[in-house]
Amino acid sequence: MSIDSPTLGGRLQGWPPFIRELDATLSVHSQYVLSGNLYDSFLAPPVEVVGPARLLPLRGLLWETLRSSGASCMIVYDPVDGVQVYPDTGDEIAEEAERAADRLLGKRGRDEKPSLEALTRQLEAVARPAENIRAAFVIDSASRIARTPTDLEPAERDFFRFCAKLSRTARPVRVPGARPKPLYNPVLWLVERPGDLPPWLTTDNENIREITIPRPHLGDRQETARLLARAFGITDVGGDEAAAAACDAFAEQADGLTLQSMIEVTRLAKERNVDLADLPDAVRTYKLGVLDNPWSRGHLRRRVLEGEKRVPERVIGQPQAVTKTLDILKRAVLGLSGAQATRSGSRPRGVLFFAGPTGTGKTELAKAITELVFGDESAYLRFDMSEFSAEGSGDRLIGSPPGYVGHEAGGELTNAVREDPFRVMLFDEIEKAHPRILDKFLQILEDGRLTDGRGNTVHFSESILIFTSNLGMYVPARDLTTRDGAFSSGAGRVQNITPGMTYDEVEQRIKDAVADHFTEVLNRPELLNRFGDNIVVFDFISGEAAHKIFDLQFANICKRVAEEHRLVLAVKGDALQTLRGWCTDELDKGGRGIGMALESHFVNPLARALFDRELVPDERVTVSGIRREGSIVHLEIQ
């Protein structure tokens, strides 16, 4: 038989499902453990047959449900205030509730100071009443009763033992009215998590029912948005297409928020004189806690346009990667990331997956993007994912769970985003992270949010996430098809891409290798789908690009010498060409290899030569020759 059938919960059609579940089972369960979304507001049907729905807190919702079943009062206990009687509206219903509570508990019992001994007597008086009085007992903040659910103090253990016995010996009550059949006077435990109570209290105890209160779904948020539109003077949303569209946008932007949070967003909007159509901006302010939005600054579009010239001068030899990256960045600036999806407003502003040979400019392009958007290349947040190869190292990102060392400190990632949600985050060599840690990115990429170890939600909707990877350089030998079509098999790993291949071939092979890694090796195809077409492949450094990189890095060395020692450094043509040949001869390490060769073949011997000289400001130092003796390089300086 369905809980929504007319013989059970059908009389409460239109009420939240968890309320219908509770109401329908009052005849068979004496205690309930309610957990989850306890502090929200909830949609309830109108008082009259025709009228708008209502938003009620949990206590109000419980009381209206219990009252419809014949309850005279609802007694609420919390460890701070002790016993209170609900409702306390000061009308006839409240006076009746006061009288019923006095008859159940007695005046002395109501005034007892909060303690487990007093709570024991009060629970027994309600669950096994001396008179036929229908009522309920709500234990608020029940998570705070036990110091540790699995390691109880003697008084706590005795209390919960009593409650377990009480669940089996409670007495159903008959009262005239809509439900004259015997119903229990329920004890309602309000806990943050079911595990906050001793596990043996509810295990194999059919008298105690556990009910999870979920967060609101889209339909709830849409109906709430239409109710809140009244604050803007709109009473008939159905007859106003613009208002209806604004309410739907508000509901979609509020994904992950409670209905109570939507109420607070509306108050924030009214305080800032924001119109109904601009409520999504108020949602962003509420989620992120900041008023300024760098993405809406007028100069940002101009900076990105200028970047079409500046970035290729900085990231040399990667025209395809730079173009695709700037396209994704433009999409982010315009707020069009994920625009094809039904709900996209909460996803990260931009997601990039940089793949390709080492030393080809992946990190440099990430810095260039950061400088374009935020004016400072050091504003990006970098995580070396090789440090997260152990399964438990994910706690560094989001913080340790309750009860573990460092729980109060939070996570490195979540703390940083909470401090500044407008930033670029670089996850370097993502393939080296433990697969369980990669799972944490699923929620970030899909919903744009992550819950840290302390239970706080952090939003990534204004961030750019960049992942770098060297996947595809090498593959298992059995998976390699050579360029002439032959199939190579054997143990170990072989090179998958080599200099001289066309960019199209390099791109296809790397994308295939990335797909194989996430689907076959990690068994995480859903994570690959979140990256979508945002995989940006970098090519090998060509000979022409290598010479440009050499010139750029050589100029940086001359500039540093001038800044540090006020010397004018020059290298004669033959020596410079020799040095150029040494540094650009092997390109398998990319631009980083050119830099390492320059350091070994030029900076080290230059430092040795200058160290032996008495340096005079504005002196001209000319390198007229360069030679190698084994692994040692010598400079001839005039």
Class by SSE composition:
alpha/beta
Q: How would you describe the oligomerization state of the chains in this entry? A: single chain
CATH class of the largest domain: Alpha Beta
Count of discrete alpha- or pi-helical segments spanning 4 or more residues = 22
Radius of gyration: 34 Å
Structural domain count: 4
Mass-distribution shape: elongated
Overall mean confidence score, pLDDT:
85
* Spatial arrangement of strands, main beta sheet: 5-4-6-7-1-8
How widely separated are the two ends?
98 Å
The tally of strands reads 22
Q: What does this entry show, briefly?
A:
The chain is 42% helix and 16% strand.
Which key terms come to mind for this protein?
alpha/beta; Rossmann fold; 4 domains; 6-stranded mixed sheet; 22 helices
Structural description of this entry:
The protein is an alpha/beta fold and 638 residues long. The protein folds into 4 domains: 14-213, Rossmann fold (3-Layer(aba) Sandwich), CATH 3.40.50; 218-288; 298-473, P-loop containing nucleotide triphosphate hydrolases (Rossmann fold); 543-637, Helicase, Ruva Protein, domain 3. The chain is 42% helix and 16% strand. It contains 22 helices and 22 strands. The protein has a 6-stranded mixed beta sheet, sandwiched between helices. A 5-stranded parallel beta sheet has the order 10-11-14-9-19. A hairpin with a 5-residue loop joins strand 16 and strand 17. The chain starts with 16 loop residues before the first helix and ends with a strand. 36% of the residues are buried. Mean pLDDT is 85; it is low at 1-9 and 486-490.
